[in-house]
Amino acid sequence: MGLQAMVRWLLPREDVFYTLIERQGELLDEAARALAQLTAGAAPERVHAAVRDIEHRADAIVHEVEDRLAAVFVTPIDREDIQGLVTAIDDIVDDIDLTARTFVLYGLPRPSPPMTDMMHVLVTMTEFLRGELPALRRHEYARLLAAARVIKQHEKAGDRVFRAALGQLFHDPAIGAKELLCEKEVLEDLELAIDRCETVAERLKHLAVKHG
């Protein structure tokens, strides 16, 4: 094999990693929407099964990214940035799966109004991230910086719902200890997922600053 042919063979298609990142974003949005079916009365067991399937597919993408990173010498952006971004997105999917599993574990039949509000915030954030991730492929760094600011505002909205819900739980004498524990854990799972959406946005902002 000649030198030029060897270099061409070693170089990956530049869009492969972008495609995997974007696919991970699609699965993230899919997982958030599956979880939000709880707000429409879907059975927690069915929701958990759907989210778990999505979580497995998201894990497969992480593994594929790792395998490809180990197999190539040149990547479109730094390999640690690729792995970090894909892993950060996968962490949110894991948190969504954790939330769905908690519903089943504690036998919660439906989300409370604050949980519903937080699920809607989460869907808004994941849908937005899914739409903005392709800007990385197109090197639209100003757009990524703006996206990080939008995500921050959504995170603040989710945090307000979370804190108000916790305050209500601890100040309502009609709520028993068991109910308080169950609802608090679900709210914390949702808060973690929302916070990690901001983590993904911060990684995108870092890439925008680094390459812009």
Short summary of the structure?
With 212 residues, this protein is mainly α. The chain is 83% helix and 0% strand. Helix 4 packs antiparallel against helix 8 (177-211).
How would you describe this protein?
- With 212 residues, the chain is mostly helical.
- The protein is 83% helix and 0% strand.
- It has eight helices and no strands.
- The N terminus is likely disordered.
- Summed up, the helix count is 8
Which class of secondary structure composition applies to the elements? mainly alpha
Report the C-alpha radius of gyration, rounded.
19 Å
Number of strands: 0
Q: What is the percent of helical residues?
A: over 70%
Write the layout of secondary structure elements.
Layout: H1 3-10, H2 15-36, H3 44-71, H4 79-106, H5 113-132, H6 134-137, H7 141-171, H8 177-211
Helix pairs in contact: 2-3, 2-4, 2-5, 3-4, 4-8, 5-7, 5-8, 7-8
What would the keywords be for this entry?
single chain, 212 residues, mainly alpha, 8 helices, disordered N terminus
